[in-house]
Amino acid sequence: MVSHGSMVSTMPVVEGQVERVISVRQISHAVLRYSENTGMLRLARIRKAHQPEIAELFASIILDRPGFFDGDDAQDLYTLRPVELAGPSFAFDAAYDPLIDKVLIIEAAADLMAPGKKEYSASATGRWHP
To answer: In terms of pTM, does the model score above 0.70?
Structure first.
């Protein structure tokens, strides 16, 4: 978890008989979840525009591997959108590789934002069985 400040705001406070205005910076908490087994870093409560920078800092400082999350597929490794669209009839198409017999979904996770927010993310982990 990473603590950081949000925008500064002001608020009136009363101390004894005196009222005065103070500046307040609310503390927010960004959540970073990294799985060493899968190499996936999940970021929550971080503005989308700042996520690549935070991921690079994590890779450089914590993993000592600068550029670890820079690959083309580093952002959206998996999406559950096709599953959402197909519903119960969803099936993986592995016809492109004759060595893959079937694909079994073993884990799925979704980070849903509060109503009114326009972002949500989802991820899944699968195993390919030759």
So the answer is: no
